[in-house]
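Quick one: structure for this chain?
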Amino acid sequence: MYFQRYYLGCLAHASYMIADEKTGVAAVIDPQRDIDQYLSDAAEHGFEIKYVFLTHFHADFVAGHIELRDKAGAKIYLGARAQAGYEFTPVKDGDVVEFGRVRFKILETPGHTPEGISILVFDLDASDRNPHAVLTGDTLFIGDVGRPDLLASIGVTADELADMLYDSLREKLLTLPDETLVYPAHGAGSMCGKNLSTESFSTIGDQRKYNYALQPMSREDFKKIVTAEQPAVPDYFVHDAVLNMQDRQSLDEAMRTSLRPLKLDKVLRLQQDGALVVDVRSDTEFAGAHLSGAINIGLDGKYATWCGTILSKDQPLVVVADPGREAEAIMRLGRIGFDHVEGFLESGPGGLAGRDDVIGKTERITARALADQLEAADSLLVLDVRTPNEWSQANIKGSVNIPLNQLTQRCGELPPDRKIVVHCRSGYRSSMAASLLAREGMTRVLDLVGGIDAWEASHLPLVGNDTAACTTTCSIK
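Got it. Here's what it folds into:
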């Protein structure tokens, strides 16, 4: 049996290809939308990808089942409760798919979503009784379980899903042998849970011992603990879940219409008509010079997740990237189903040469300079755009916390007559925040270089959660 795990760090997403080396038949489970790596590996090993399984309708990315169907001729398999707008084979508890000396046995494990399944993987050369591994999708993670509150499925409440999850874990997955390997669909950084491990795999036995959600507890206690302190859900999650149910266009088709160079005058016309310009360069490059009104979301970070959080799925997009990185920026938007890209600025930032009338800059300030100004002036407002939990652990005294994902809706709370210094942990999120505020017409915004990490490295004071500092609900004076 050939077993390969693929990991997409920016979305904390794991997918798998499993094949029988003798017959050359392969299956891909929970593929990402750009499928070249699966096709390349299959060609290298002489495999034919005949099957593609989705453990559930993913909400945080658009899966590559349509692409594998169209390019490789793979048949799509979904849980028996799934409803989709394309042809698929429904599988239920106990169903078996066998190819060569590889056997898949299906467990229906609803809870994260109603149609969720887990796949028992047998290497028949080793044992036909004990599974080698279980692919748990988003039902069971390493260190956590799937959250039941994403509301990605119409007509099912979080409470009903939590009931299903409790039963799926205890009546299905925890009945497996302790030595069964556990391979989930996400790792640390995913918003599909709150306590995911950085480990690639585990065992049922270890999860039985160490996973907080698998400890003995009542149903009601379980429901409380798995819904508490979950990260905020980006708006694009429902959009992606719906796309995964539909017979949509392929990524190749989307790229053909989106990957086109645009002259600056065309970009300006699109911008005037309501398109949003996304500058994907680093915060330092963006601060130096950018197209006025552009939003900075750097490629070298959690680019897709923040694009889905900040941008609208209905608003046309134009990308500004360093030459050679345009395809990457547009493809990664495609991973979350943002196919509404009109094109990219020809020559990237070089396309702005000689047009000082449309160039904006972000003023920046160092930690030491900010400390000096805070001592000298009362008119300066420090805006922390980290999460409330980050803010409560350590913050600059007197700072105001508005998380980045709430900033557009809450920027009216900020005083227009005060100079605002915005910061996050390292500078990635604060550059986004500064660009969003500038787009809202706020002209007295500075970005703290290096964020709170630089503040701490400069040995400047921080306060924590037992200090009476300003909170997210405080009155901004």
